[in-house]
User: What shape does this take?
Amino acid sequence: MKYYYQLSQLEQEVIRLKSFYSTFRVIANGVEQSTSEDINEALFYLEGSLEDIQTKLDDAFQTLWNDVREELWVEDEELNTASTDEQSNDVWNHVVENLQINPNNSEENT
Assistant: This one.
């Protein structure tokens, strides 16, 4: 499967994001029973982890997008080249047909 590695990376980060959302909910529910120092440490940990997940998601998505776009561009170029070659052949054949010298016409003109 194409792009399996990139899709796996995206999936891994989405799973991490879900895990940290659960952690956030636990922390939010325990705020009343925690000290402000515990809350600050937990929030600092969550912030750093979420920033890391965001960066990895952005990078994985951009890599996947670039690969897909490049593949589509190459396919489009191949189609355009094939189409252009066919058009060129059609034009060439038309020109050759119209430029063929008719010996009878040549003698009449002289």
Remarks:
- The chain has three helices and no strands.
- The two ends are 70 Å apart (CA to CA).
